Amino acid sequence: MEVQTMRGADAVIKVLAAHGVTTVFGYPGGAIMPIYDALVGHELEHILCRHEQGAGFAAVGYARASGKTGVCFATSGPGATNLITALADAMLDSVPLVAITGQVSTAVIGTDAFQEVDLLGMSLSCTKHSFMVQRLEDLVPTLYRAFDIAASGRPGPVLVDIPKDIQLGRLEYRAPLLALSPEPKAAEADIQAARQLLSQSRKPMLYVGGGVGMAGAVEPLRDFIRVTGMPSVATLKGLGAIAHDTPGYLGMLGMHGGKAANLAVQECDLLLVVGARFDDRVTGRLDSFASKAKVIHLDIDAAELGKLRRPDVAIAGELRSLLPKLAKALDIGSWQAEVAELARDHQWQYRQDGNLIYAPALLRRLASKLPQDSVVSCDVGQHQMWVAQHMYFRRPEDHLSSAGLGTMGFGLPAAIGAQMARPGATVVTVSGDGSFMMNVQELTTIKRRGLPVKILLIDNQKLGMVKQWQQLFFEQRYSETDLSDNPDFVTLASAFDIPGKTIFAADEVEQALDDMLSSPGPFLLHVAIDDSYNVWPLVPPGASNSDMMEEMEKST
User: Fold this and answer.
1) Which of 153, 190, 165, 218 minimizes the C-alpha distance to 296?
2) Residues 21/69, Cβ–Cβ less than 8 Å
3) Is 164 one of the annotated active-site residues of the chain?
4) H-helix or E-strand spanning residue 297
5) Which end of the chain is more exposed for a tag (fewer CB within 10 A), N or C?
6) pTM higher than 0.85 for the full model?
7) pLDDT digits (tens, 9 = 90+) for 521-541
8) Which one from 57, 91, 147, 164 is the annotated catalytic residue?
9) Which of the following is catalytic: 465, 470, 516, 523?
10) Is there a catalytic annotation at residue 550?
């Protein structure tokens, strides 16, 4: 095979094409200009976002909605530092991402050159791996390694920092031979020990996390539930792994989980943890979490096993292969009946307060109206928890939410990435008036690309979640949570040629949702709600999940 000679920048684009990358999100600048020059005339599609953080979140949304590795570009200095939050978000939510940044030329590294920042040092704590390419011959092998690391095992973000002279230098392009990343093998003794615990249990509970979707283990999980009949709960990132109408499925658990979900977990005698990590927002006070239960923990990442809760059986491995080995019929009829009674006793209530719009009821109606192929991308705050509580999803990749980092401003650019990944899908971003302003500049990206992203903006003119905590835990001392000087959001959207409407009353909801979903292009539905609505239930910090606070009057 003839060896091709090319610039390093052209080699970067060739490596992306070799890995099946069709879409890249980014923003150009001086130190990455050669790579942008290499894009000219290439079939690789570049989406110009209007802030590097927006590009990073769009790549995260693309990866999560598609199951592929997301890719983003940024220049050195401030361009690269603007990616850091997106890298941290991808790290905490285990999203496969390759971020390629330009760097000043190797001759001036360490001299405080213009737009020089030690991005390698900055990124070490928020990436799965970081590289700076210092030799031309290392460029292609490093990029190949980056894609392998990002997608293998527990996925995560990888940064490749490429000095400008490496991009301009000429090399002979050769695809490297890489050893396949080994998969952990489960010991047969551990499988048998887990099966024995399952046989002995009379009140087992399945606790499902985001690892299931990332492992492509949704069908094995659903088969496992059908065989065992085991009741189940999910984390924020686990939503969609279990069909919402599955018998015994109680929805989300944890700080803002459903009451039935939290109570059932507290009563179980065996907790089967699948692709989850005992996050503090799930467990409440750790020593009280499922304290009656033995624990079986399954995860691809051995570092998570025993990190917070010592399991009785810990198995590191691929969930796709582990779950079928554990599936067996269980004698748990009385427990199934008890869980069903909990579900009936603690159903969500959608009582309307006069003609005020009640966001949970609106979101439940939205869920029922969405077509089969749809994606909901969330920002962070009260609306995020209402979406998790009251909407339902066909698959994990249909629900994008910044879970680990809790990043305001995530929703809009993530929706852009999801729409690029799945152009035929209905993509809705649910945002709050605080979060929406964090990356509002990406409305330009929607306009430029003509993307049919729907925006549901729930506006209580407050930083709602912060205000709720100030009410409950800071004696109603409301500090810097008033957003009553918000812009007119419909007028703002119109500046980007995005139509929209505002609704104030419950009897407007049905038609407004239909208008939004039937719009052939982008649409902003601005929903004004009363700030007296809080998210319930709530497990106070440091409390047991048994001790949930429920609705109370709010003084504003």
Assistant:
1) 190
2) yes
3) yes
4) strand 294-299
5) N
6) yes
7) 999 999 999 999 999 999 999
8) 164
9) 465
10) no
